[in-house]
Every structure is written in C-alpha cells, then in structure tokens.
Design goal:
It is built from 4 helices and 14 strands. The chain has about 250 residues and is mostly beta strands. Strands 1, 2, 3, 5, 6, 8, 11, 12 and 14 form a 9-stranded antiparallel beta sheet that branches. A 5-stranded antiparallel beta sheet has the order 4-7-13-9-10, with no helix packed on it.
Length: about 250
C-alpha cells in the first residue's frame, strides 16, 4: 500500500460531497467539467460568500439545507437621496475603520453607506426569484450596524424609537405584506416574532423584513421597501435573503 500521499477523511470527496447542493454533487448529471475537476472540499469553500454581479452581490449555499443564499449590497439597493452628503456618506472598506474609526465589523463588500442625518429613511431592494432555490421558504433581513449610540432614540433607553414600515411583495402577485419592525435595540424577553433586531455572529445586526415561499415555477421579482422616520449613524451593508430554518 502506497502511503506517500494519503488523503484524510476530512479531505475525502465522499465527505464533502454531502455538503454540496445537488447540482454540484458527484451524482448530478449536470455537474460541469469545471466543477468536477475540483476537490469537493475546495469546491465547498469556493461556494462560501462569493462576490458576483461586479462585486455588488454575495452568493453562497446554506448548509446543511443546500439552498441558495444572497446578500444585496448597499450599492445595489435603492436608497433615497443616497448621493446627498448631508444625509448619507459612502465609506470604502477598510478606510471606514482605518481613517474614520467607525468600528465597523468585517464586511463582504468594498464599501458601506452611513445614514448621517435623515428625517425620512427609505431603502428598497429587489431580486429575481429564479436565482433562488425552488420550493423554499425564504426570509429577508436588513443587515446593518449602529456605530454610535449618541442618537436621538437612545437618549432614553425605555423610549421606543420610530417604527420601521416594511412593504414586501412580488411583481406578479396581488398580495403584498406590510409589517412594522424596530431597529433600536435587541430584545431578549421571549418570542418577538422578528419585530426586533438581533446581533449576528459576524458583529452586524439584522432586522427581519419578511418571508415568502418561492415555488420556482415562474420568473418573478421580489421587492422590498423599508421606510421610517429620523435615523442617524446606521451603517447599511445590504439585504440578505436566506432559507427559513425548519
């Protein structure tokens, strides 16, 4: 037996094949030559947070569900008055931390946008449903960071900040979803039904915008609009779309 170049169990294609979506697995007849030429372990890590669409979107697979996930960067979102330096400031990464000391966590994209002084906060995003996994319930989240708590809604920690109104619909559907959420602080007392933000493992915050079921049998667009009153010092990374946990 030749042991000069052993392959450990952790590097085995058989092991890593189980973590990959069906279109990349060894059993799939649609697997391309490019993918099959790679070790499955290498292929798995290549599918983690890949930048696509000229660096304005991030794509990866949720594990172990093997479902497709995306994050739409701030540059790819509609942001009202985004070019106004009075209301919004765009910062490149890592300049935001190195030059301006904002303390922003690691970011998937090359830049972020900061809400500086705004009386009307409006952000919109959209994604083509054909990009997503079929027969899957998805939840979307606004991913953001508050780099300073010296803001009007933090003066009294018992005071509620302005509610955030979310409108959520698909182009070919007559039924839209409206819901009210909050950005101001984490809430830990019981089931909040997604109305309050949560701290992520990567240091960012996320607020749940809504959920929808993607049948995958039609080419549609999911659209999201986020509106609220005065907000300051919120750093927006993007909108994330990922499968609902069972």
């Amino acid at each position: 037996m030749n042991l000069s170049n052993p392959v450990s169990a952790a590097d085995s294609d058989v092991v890593w094949d189980r973590f990959l979506p069906s279109e990349y697995s060894s059993s799939s007849s649609s697997s391309s030559t490019t993918w099959s030429a790679l070790w499955k372990k290498e292929l798995y890590f290549r599918t983690r947070y890949n930048l696509i669409h000229k660096g304005k979107m991030s794509f990866w697979f949720d594990l172990p569900s093997r479902k497709k996930c995306y994050m739409i960067s701030a540059r790819e979102l509609y942001i009202e008055d985004a070019d106004s330096i009075i209301d919004w400031r765009w910062f490149s990464i890592p300049d935001a931390n190195a030059k301006y000391h904002l303390g922003i966590p690691d970011c998937r994209f090359s830049e972020v946008v900061v809400c500086v002084d705004l009386c009307h906060f409006e952000i919109g995003g959209k994604i083509t449903t054909s990009l997503l996994s079929s027969m899957t319930t998805y939840i979307t989240y606004l991913v953001y960071f508050v780099f300073s708590q010296n803001c009007v809604w933090f003066e009294d920690e018992d005071e509620e900040d302005n509610p955030v109104e979310v409108f959520y619909w698909t182009c070919w559907s007559n039924n839209g979803q409206y819901r009210t959420i909050y950005f101001h602080r984490e809430r830990q007392d019981g089931n909040d039904d997604g109305f309050y933000p949560k701290k992520r493992a990567d240091g960012w915050m996320e607020s749940e915008l809504g959920e929808f079921f993607n049948r995958g049998d039609e080419d549609d667009e999911l659209l999201m609009t986020i509106e609220t009153g005065i907000k300051e010092n919120i750093v927006v990374q993007g909108i994330e779309i990922r499968p609902k946990k069972e």
